[in-house]
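Re-running the complex after MR caught last week's input typo. The corrected sequence lines follow. Everything else is unchanged.
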Amino acid sequence: METVSRSRCRTSRYFPWLSSPLGALGVGTAREPKRITPVTIQCMDSNDTVSCEQIGVLHKRFKQLSHNEDTLRREHFNAIHDLAWNPIRAQIIEAFFDRRNLIPPGEGSMEEIHLEEFLVVMSHFKPPSLSMTDEERDSVRREKLRFLFNMHDTDNDGTITLEEYRHVVEELLSRSGHIGKETAVSIADAAMLEVAGISMGHMEPDEFYEGITFEHFLKLLNSFEIEAKMNVRFLNMNASTVCY
Amino acid sequence: MDPYLRRPRDVLLLLCAVSNVLHGCAGEIPPQATPGAGAGRVTLLPPIKPDGPQAYPEPAKDNLPVFTMDYPRIQIPFEITLWVLLASFAKIGFHVYNKITVWVPESCLLISIGLIVGAIMHSVNEEPPAVLTGNVFFLYMLPPIVLDSGYFMPTGPFFENIGTVLWFAVAGTLWNSVGIGMSLFAICQMEALGVQDINLQENLLFAAIISAVDPVAVLSVFEDASVNEQLYIVAFGECLFNDAVTVVLYNMFNFVAEMPAVEPADVFLGVARFFVVGLGGMAFGALFGFVAAFTTRFTSKVREIEPLFIFMYSYLAYLVAELFALSSIMAIVTCAVTMKYYVEENVSQRSCTTIRHVVKMLGSISETLIFFFLGVVTVTTEHEWNWGFILFTLLFAFLWRGLGVLLLTQIINPFRTIPFNLKDQFGLAYGGLRGAISFALAFTLPVNIGRKQLFVTATIAVIIFTVFLQGISIRPLIEYINVRRTNRNLDTINAEIHCRLMEHTIAGMEDVCGQWSRFYWKDKFMKFNSGILRRILIRDNRAESSIVALYKKLELQSAMEILDTLSGDVSAAPSLVYLQEEKKGPAKPKQKLLAADLRSMRDILAKNMYKIRQRTTSYTSKHALPNDSRTKEILIRRHSSIRRSLRPGSFQTTVVPKSHKYFSLPAGKNLDLNLPPVRHIHTDDHETMSESSFPARRPRFAPPSRSSSSRAGLPLRRLDTLEEVPSVDILDERRPRRGQSATRSSSVEPRRHADPTEKEKEDNADPPDDPTRNPLLRRPQWKPKK
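Corrected-run output:
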């Protein structure tokens, strides 16, 4: 019995949507005595953004990727064929192993991830629900932006430095053919200048601009409706269409 | 003040034009020579003098006529010209006083003017010109309207929502047509109405006509209120494609209405035909679009006729589709969408402007004419007014539209990432105004439809009702219920970078989950596009990421401005050289820029600017060209930041403590501690002169009224403060910047004769090349001081 309650705790910690009133109802019926597999969690109300079915879909995919093991390692991700073309492949893969993206954010990176971590990372991409208050929207927004921010901030010092920014821009442009490294560098520079310009208003006279902090990052992408854009449809799809 | 003063004059012009239309050329022809407008050949005799000594006219046959008139010969084009002029004057008229067009849609005003003109014509028993026949409408009036919509369609959002758009356009229109048609048919069975002779086919035909939604007025409201992108694009796409659906349905029902009996097989044939017509039209459109793009690859030597290709190919697509009785609207829209991207890269900037203007102009004038004509026809034709039928039509049109939107959103919502909420649905349903297409279709009904007059009357009633009532009330309503909004001003490099980053991340996540969506297809298409299509269709193909594109445009704009300073005021040039020589010692010799180089550079720069415009201002109202003021403003801002970065130590002034002083400029403080004081001696007079040119330049880039000020605050504040502080400080402040701009521009100059692409590259590569010039490379400034 103890395992059950422990896993319940972990689940609701990792799945923020489970802590909603509707979700809490559902979790209570989890009976699996061994390591939690969210597939067995009773479904929540279908209006919620993540249903049991969708977790099941992701579970299936997890198994497929890990070749039926319990954990995913980097080489599993590296083996994904479609991902190979993605210019920021390295960052995406790293994001899965980054403890900062877990719900109680940790530090450092992991060597292998379990299904929970996989799902938590995925949960950053759930579409916003239709009836969201402004505060909810804001927190969703922060969460999604935090995810992007973490992708930039590789050394985890809370700021995106010019080097880090340059690196990302270079990666982004690396698949675009004729664009040289200099262009990428100068674009990153210009972008950084822009950041300085935008966040200037809040700077104290004695402050130096050391890099983009998360607050500046929020401000920078103020008008960018990430909560409406950064989402993946998988959480809304049927198993039959998702898995091949 | 001014608008009020100008108003009477416009009215006068209008009246003048009206009287011209009414009486042919009454001003020129003496009364006895004009028995009527179409009276045959009129020859005026040469020696007529009003009060001359001659008591009787000479026999005219022998003499050579000195002054003759042949009105019938020019009658048709003449009257068309006058009509177009009159409609255009009307448009000028209401834009003189801006507030009218904010609250009352333009179509309302046009119809009103049409009603007035119609009333005048009616009172003098004048017939409206028989311009609007079926052929004229379908062959000449419709193509420009559709080309306009297709060419200025915001492609990105459109393809993101293509499923919903098509769903609403096709299923929605079918739903409306069938629903309204059936219920009207049921109503017609009531004896009290006295319209039992209208059979089902005719009812369906009529229903198809009035289910064509034309939310032009609504779109401009949506745009002003910046409602969310999804809602906007669905309304836009719906109005674009339901024209096509309506015309297909119209043709189909028109055909069916003449058949004595309809068999079940005909229904299936009808459905099959529906798809053949739609897809066939698209195929022809895409074909002609690619051919057009391919053609413009070779037009670099014949710039004058470049725009012509665009119009001819679009029209050809339209006509060929019409030839095979396919959906010509689909053909021309597909053609425009396909070729736009490639053509605008191939043609010169001027041709690009020309194309855009002409497309807009033709579309706008066609539509204006139709609305105007609607007003005239409303008054001048015989009506068959049947209260019951018309009221029921209104009711059903409203009802089925609302029901349709509700039902269709319920079906489509589960498939959408961001579902439509009730407010969106209301906006969509209430935005269902009927417009020009409906009227034109009704007016061109074949005469063998028994109740044509009733149909025309009912259509006009529906149009006037929806356009006036809904069109006027939708703006307050949308603002009242507070529909979800989208901020569309995303023109910073950071936003672009993060947008791309996010898209790639999502694509990656989807790959990880093993499922494909539009990002997957977008990636695939982009690959195909840059790999094959661009190579074939575009002259000098250089694959470009959108980030690079945006960056380059901004860079080039700043370069252009620097160039402006250089070529704009000659007085500035020497001082700039001085500054440069002083600072750098062995300076490069200043070269005079050749006029041709300047021109070609400007061309490159301007064309490149255009691309930003194309990318960002996809939302255009039907009657206005994309507004570039916003882009320009962003460029100013960018420019100022680049300029700041160009001057050594400049970044310090903006970031380090000094920046504070820089912005507020307390009197008496010298900001240029790091600049050699000797410069004052050399440059004082030049500086004043060049400084005097500054205000002249400023209005060109004067920041327009802005919607969001948060990001654009920087340059503006700077301008403001600069104007307030004493002039000495301005000079002190400006000197280093100008000096640096000189350094930069003259160092770039000698290379300007090179290939433009090379120049661009060099421009981009410049900052990192020279560490002294690029403050960003000096690490300490970016690191916290510990």
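None of the earlier attempt is carried over here. The two ends of chain A are 37 Å apart (CA to CA). Chain A touches chain B through 81 residues (CB under 8 Å).
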